């Protein structure tokens, strides 16, 4: 029998009367539902694909137990009516077909319900008063005993419906600032009755829910409780509170998953969905402490992806398993690749939080209602737009440029059988990513490039030419069927007096130069903020960021922007100047003009320019006009987000041939 490199992770896990085939679980992930609470057809395949990737348990995310008293954003799957059973059976059957257990996350938002989705705009919580939802506020009605009893029963009924719908277990959401966590936290629970005060009282509602589920679903149905190991906020539930709660819950449940933080803290998202500024597994400490206090299995979740770290935590007995979410969007085959020793082909999540932020109600003004992955162009797209069965093509394809769009284009075309020449004018892969991956918190961009490079090198129908400049004449002379132009973009060089000074460095060249102690960044977009953080935090430089608008980090995914904000506020040697412009670069530094017209001069050893990128349009169109079937993709067409460049490149290659050969 072939031995895996990660034996602890691939040891079966027994909990209650159930067995998970390994210790890697898919944490709750929602697939947006229709406005009446039904799953969209794509959801069934999404969860089946996650199961196909080899995890032991697949958990469907955010399912309402009582839509009439608590709905957080309208398009949430519901489990409060038997009419949802048929589609649940179809979904869980797909999960079971790949040998995984099926779970579903049961929630009641409590104070975090959106009044516009509840009858009469009435929102319920442990204690009355004002509560926030995003950046707004609404009034909360204190739950009386009848309402408490109703919701306790609704949890039990939802679990019973889930069981009949084919679920092997349910995950009861007792953390993250949802209703059960609101009872646990002194910040939101001011009650003086049997549900308030001491931890035994504050945990009473959670206990009643667990007991009700057990009574209705029987001893053989799995009950997992998800807890925030600590609220990490003043007057919130502490780690000690949660350890005691876990001990009280233990007789009635089979497993505990430990996350962290609460939405009652408006900045909690950066820890709840750990951003790239946090270490992998950053929430493991409370999970380890809870594991010491209980005998049932404890699963840790939060920004994991390092297999050696995961293996060590499980092998040492500090936790019993690891939950993954965003990582399985980046690479749904994560577990199976790890089991088979193909970890070098695992595409790691960069924790950019593009997927979470694009639909992160109510924090974004126009939520997209879908998530897309910056490093996985196939996520939620292939089965929506293209058939799973690919035609075996016969075209001769040229891809110009080996940045992310070009590399993906080459792979997309090769995957369909075409013969591909990938030409790159420099000596390596990655394009502009090569200038971005130096900060430790962005090293996964280098991993992304390396994984794509390995795939390209292994593809028998891709030829690579590095240090090769493609000309229009080369295209005309070589009779290519298709040309994909992915030559990227160049940094904008603003017209500022003194811009030609030797102290001026373009942001794309910052890691190629020896920089002085005092740095001024022109441009407070995502590049300026990230590189400013790196220079101030990791290199000890004195950093000033000058941004002409009243907002910094424009274009950053919301949760990433939140992470940048938290990091910058920690740094006493980083200063952000909004609504200011650099009017001149002087011998000693820069002259800065504020919105009110006042000017100041700041000493700077170097001035870093990061005001944006511009497409290499003229070069791209010269190449385009040399072919009768060309396409321009990625930043060469329009500077955009990484996920857009990756997807555009891949599908430009994948969809070359419309007719079967």
Question: Secondary-structure map with pairings?
Answer:
Layout: E1 13-15, E2 18-20, E3 24-29, H1 41-52, E4 57-64, E5 77-78, H2 85-96, E6 101-107, E7 124-125, E8 129-133, E9 136-142, H3 145-164, E10 169-173, H4 179-184, H5 199-202, H6 204-217, E11 222-228, H7 239-249, E12 255-259, H8 269-272, H9 284-293, E13 298-301, H10 307-315, E14 321-324, H11 326-330, H12 334-339, H13 354-357, H14 382-385, E15 396-400, H15 404-415, E16 419-423, H16 443-458, E17 462-465, H17 472-477, E18 482-485, E19 489-491, E20 504-506, E21 518-522, H18 526-538, E22 542-546, H19 558-570, E23 574-577, E24 580-585, E25 589-594, E26 599-603, E27 606-609, E28 613-615, H20 617-624, E29 630-632, H21 642-654
Parallel strand pairs: 3-4, 3-14, 4-5, 4-6, 6-10, 7-9, 10-11, 11-12, 12-13, 13-14, 15-16, 15-18, 16-17, 18-29, 20-27, 21-22, 21-27, 22-23
Antiparallel strand pairs: 1-2, 8-9, 19-28, 24-25, 25-26
Helix pairs in contact: 1-2, 3-6, 7-9, 15-16, 15-21, 18-19
Main pleated sheet: 8 strands, parallel, barrel
Distance between the termini: 42 Å
What is the residue-averaged pLDDT? Answer: 94
Q: What is the total tally of β strands?
A: 29
User: Which structural class is indicated by helix and strand composition?
Assistant: alpha/beta
What is the CATH homology-level superfamily of the largest domain? Aldolase class I
> Strand content of the residues, in percent?
15-25%
CATH third-tier fold name of the largest domain: TIM Barrel
Low-confidence stretches: none
What is the C-alpha radius of gyration, as a whole number of Å? Answer: 27 Å
- Domain count: the total is 3
Overall, the morphology is globular
In DSSP terms (H or I, runs of 4 or more residues), the helix count works out at: 21
Helix content: 25-40%
Give the CATH level 1 class of the largest domain.
Answer: Alpha Beta
Task: Walk across the major sheet and give the strand order.
Answer: 3-4-6-10-11-12-13-14
What is the CATH-assigned architecture of the largest domain? Alpha-Beta Barrel
């Amino acid at each position: 029998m072939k031995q895996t490199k990660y034996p602890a992770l691939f040891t079966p896990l027994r909990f209650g009367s159930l067995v998970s085939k390994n210790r890697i679980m898919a944490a709750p992930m929602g697939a947006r539902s229709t406005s009446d609470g039904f799953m969209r057809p794509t959801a069934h395949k999404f969860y089946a694909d996650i199961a196909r990737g080899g995890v032991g348990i697949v958990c469907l995310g955010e399912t309402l137990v009582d839509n009439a008293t608590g709905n957080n954003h309208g398009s949430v799957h519901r489990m409060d009516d038997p009419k949802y059973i048929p589609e649940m059976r179809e979904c869980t059957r797909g999960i079971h077909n790949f040998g995984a257990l099926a779970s579903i996350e049961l929630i009641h938002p409590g104070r975090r319900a959106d009044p516009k989705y509840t009858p009469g705009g009435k929102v319920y919580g442990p204690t009355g008063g004002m509560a926030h939802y995003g950046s707004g506020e609404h009034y909360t009605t204190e739950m009386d005993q009848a309402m408490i009893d109703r919701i306790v029963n609704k949890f039990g009924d939802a679990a019973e419906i889930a069981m009949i719908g084919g679920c092997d277990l349910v995950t009861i959401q007792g953390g993250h600032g949802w209703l059960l966590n609101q009872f646990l936290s002194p910040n939101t629970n001011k009650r003086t009755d049997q549900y308030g005060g001491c931890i035994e009282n504050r945990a009473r509602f959670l206990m009643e829910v667990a007991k009700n589920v057990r009574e209705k679903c029987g001893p053989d149905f799995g009950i997992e409780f998800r807890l925030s190991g600590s609220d990490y906020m003043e007057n919130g539930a502490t780690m000690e509170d949660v350890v005691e709660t876990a001990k009280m819950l233990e007789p009635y449940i089979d497993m505990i998953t430990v996350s962290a933080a609460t939405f009652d803290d408006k900045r909690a998202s950066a820890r709840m969905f750990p951003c790239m500024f946090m270490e992998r597994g950053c929430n493991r400490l409370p999970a380890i402490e809870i594991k010491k206090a209980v005998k049932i299995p404890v699963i840790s979740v939060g920004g994991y992806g390092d297999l050696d770290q995961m293996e060590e935590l499980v092998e040492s007995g500090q936790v019993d398993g690891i939950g993954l979410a965003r990582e399985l969007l980046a690479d749904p085959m994560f577990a199976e690749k790890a089991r088979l020793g193909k970890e070098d082909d695992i595409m790691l999540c960069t924790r950019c939080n593009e997927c979470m932020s694009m639909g992160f109600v109510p924090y974004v003004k126009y939520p997209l209602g879908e998530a897309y992955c910056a490093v996985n162009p196939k996520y939620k797209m292939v089965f929506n737009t293209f058939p799973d069965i690919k035609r075996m093509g016969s075209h001769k394809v040229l891809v110009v440029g080996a940045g992310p769009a070009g590399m993906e284009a080459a792979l997309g075309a090769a995957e369909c059988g075409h013969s591909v020449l990938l030409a790159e004018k420099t000596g390596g892969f990655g394009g502009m990513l090569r200038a971005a991956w130096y900060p430790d918190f962005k090293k996964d961009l280098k991993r992304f490039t390396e994984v794509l490079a390995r795939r390209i090198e292994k593809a028998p129908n891709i030829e690579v030419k590095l240090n090769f400049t493609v000309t229009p004449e080369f295209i005309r002379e070589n009779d290519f069927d298709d040309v994909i132009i992915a030559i990227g973009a160049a940094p904008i060089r603003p017209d500022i007096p003194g811009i030609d000074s030797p102290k001026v460095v373009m942001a794309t060249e910052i890691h190629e130069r020896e920089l002085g102690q005092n740095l001024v960044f022109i441009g407070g977009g995502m590049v300026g903020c990230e590189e400013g953080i790196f220079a101030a935090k990791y290199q000890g430089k004195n950093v000033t960021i000058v941004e002409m608008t009243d907002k910094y980090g424009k274009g950053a995914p919301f949760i990433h922007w939140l992470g940048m904000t938290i990091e910058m506020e920690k740094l006493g040697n980083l200063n952000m100047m909004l609504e200011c412009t650099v009017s001149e670069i002087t011998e000693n530094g820069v002259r800065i003009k504020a919105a009110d017209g006042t000017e100041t001069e700041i000493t700077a050893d170097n001035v870093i320019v990061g005001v944006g990128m511009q497409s290499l349009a003229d070069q791209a169109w010269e190449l385009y006009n040399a072919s009768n079937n060309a396409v321009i993709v990625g930043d060469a067409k329009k500077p955009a987000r990484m996920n857009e460049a990756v997807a555009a490149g891949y599908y430009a290659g994948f969809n070359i041939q419309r007719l079967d050969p």
